[in-house]
Structures
1.
Amino acid sequence: MKNKYNSKAVFLGIIILCVAFFYFPPGNVEKNAVNETSFALQVIEQDNFWIYEVYNDDNLFIRQEYIPAVKGQQGFTSKADAEKIGNLVMRKLIENKMPVVSIKDLDANAIHFKRI
């Protein structure tokens, strides 16, 4: 009779551990998911301006030749500016958000552009 209860207790313990493992995964699983993203950023100089391209599984996903959210067709004047906004867009894509860039985002990243 005791043997029956012991095997039930062991079985119940295993079930609890399995459920806990799936509901509470280790903390670094989320970090690995971000590092193993299928998105990649490439910053390229074109006609004295900088553009960024976001690739998804080696396929061109976004090609941004002009600074988003500003009036007119203003290009990025520095590689650093294009890279900052490209990384912002990639972060939004990784988080399953729309990759929309606002003037507020540009100001927060100290992006240089002409206010028309």
2.
Amino acid sequence: MLKLFRRNAADYIRANIVAYFFMILIFVIGIVIGAMAVKTLPDEQKIELVGYLRVFFQGLTEQPAGIGNTQSLLTSVIGNNSRLIGIMWLLGFTIVGIPFVLFMVCLRGFVIGFTVGFLVNEYVMKGLLFAIVAVLPHNFLAVPAILATGVAATTFSLMLVRRKHHSKDNLLYNSIAYSVFCLAMLVIMLGAALIEVFVSPVFMKLVAHLIRT
């Protein structure tokens, strides 16, 4: 069973290697743009963001995590992650949805690039350390899931375009396979949400103490 899964996964990646390369490129472009955007921020906005970070660090180090707050945060994160995968899934059923899928992937990269870039720009190595513990753990699962969903959505959308000229593709079978794949990516995103809510804050709190000293 495991060998069959590995073989199918390898075949899938080989068949979509170009799409994955292009999707990763779009994501990296978003990261670069986000990091460069930090340099273009007006001083007033930088001061506001630094003030917000100080309040955030203070609350992170002084306030104990409550069950109600954790549940509220978990609900919010799960809702955002589910919405993202759901929208990308729906866009895959539209022929004109490809640019929007690419934009969402690029936007995710932009947010990560801007967050890391701003923290490093303001706090240097301490900021880099905080960015690693705050951004990396959950995105270790979330980013591959988003990229894979983006590839699936674009390839399915392109299949719909080709189907106009070649009706050999089984639309029902492809739709079910596409939906099941997106559902699997949603499960991964739910795992990322659990890490973001229960794991990342533990390390963020430790590093926040370091930044405030």
